[in-house]
């Protein structure tokens, strides 16, 4: 039997067996309700170090590895070094919940578990059941759900009393998401680690951890790390108990390429098609039906893409406003087509004369403004080659016509019978020809008015197209500049 005393800690080793004896370990197990320190007033140090490895968007992976930097120093409490090795992150933007699976690696010093490896058969490390030892009460303050994670049943202990405890932790925490700049948004989610039982004064250098995390995040998915910030505060609870929570603020920025390809580019293509639809001739092609089909397709596109858009009570993301404005532009384009179609195709078959003010404003000033060339208005008074309005015929004079030749020279035509018959038939023919001529004149006038209204419709169509194109380009420029500014922040 040999007894080794290291820093007032005693574990008994048996030469016949390797490692401390079960009896000496049982004495330590019986003290699991007490913090493993001989002097309870002596200060202890708590260290937290991690490196962010990857953020993969809706399913994002964070991996933390322990480092050599001292992250926090608590003057009273357990000696503890906590390293977050890895956790899988699910970010629910609709409910603003952050579900994380953490692989915690806890380190602390147990003064009752020390032995001499040479006296214990060369054994320097052993594993012990965690239920039989004191464990630090490190919790996450943002935890809002039941802990359903699987626990590791053992801890590793070396001969100096250093304990390493690896465990998985499923944390469902709240994260206030700012989604107005989606998909060019930057999120700041906080995980607060602390203890309700101990007090501290904390100093936290995070520059090296942030640099290491960015190095490991070069090949991550949807999210990229901006910075890791840390701070500590002293909270006062009931019974004048002070604790030192450690706030870990992980600032991440979304990589927008997925949403640009799946949302913005298809929407831009549909807007380009809507602009190109103005090139269709409105007089001979049903442009309104084409635009209605385009609006229907855009609405179906928005319904399909609705699941990719975040929806919270904090406000509407800018991309939602972008889609709404694009839909409004399409509706205004359809209304413009309806107005032009109404001008080109009157409800009745008879065209009214173009009002004088429309002729002056549209056919003269606006046409000159948009460089629209058209032929001058034809005269509504038709030119006639003969006058059939006079239905009276002069009586037959009885003169012989030379066109009948010599054969009818000596034929005498009765003066009474022939002029009466010819006069009636010729008068009827004259009236029919006058009616046909009047109808042709009316058709010519209507055709002239129709052509004039067509010119009015085309001029207004060209003008509204240029106004529509101007607002589309201005809107696109504002959106692109705004998102570029936010993306480079």
TrEMBL record:
The annotated topology with respect to the bilayer is: Multi-pass membrane protein
The Gene Ontology terms for molecular function here are:
extracellular ligand-gated monoatomic ion channel activity; transmembrane signaling receptor activity
Tell me where in this chain the Neurotransmitter-gated ion-channel transmembrane domain is found.
Answer: 263-479
Q: Which reaction does it catalyse?
A: Ca(2+)(in) = Ca(2+)(out); K(+)(in) = K(+)(out); Na(+)(in) = Na(+)(out)
> What are its GO cellular component terms?
postsynaptic membrane
Q: Which UniProt keywords apply?
A: Cell membrane, Disulfide bond, Glycoprotein, Ion channel, Ion transport, Ligand-gated ion channel, Membrane, Postsynaptic cell membrane, Receptor, Signal, Synapse, Transmembrane, Transmembrane helix, Transport
Q: Which Pfam families match?
A: Neur_chan_LBD, Neur_chan_memb
- The transmembrane residues are 257-280, 292-309, 321-344, 467-488
Q: Which residues form the Neurotransmitter-gated ion-channel ligand-binding domain?
A: 91-255
Indicate yes or no for the key word Calcium: no
Belongs to which family?
Answer: Belongs to the ligand-gated ion channel (TC 1.A.9) family.
This molecule's function is given as: Forms serotonin (5-hydroxytryptamine/5-HT3)-activated cation-selective channel complexes, which when activated cause fast, depolarizing responses in neurons.
What name is this protein filed under? Answer: 5-hydroxytryptamine receptor 3A-like
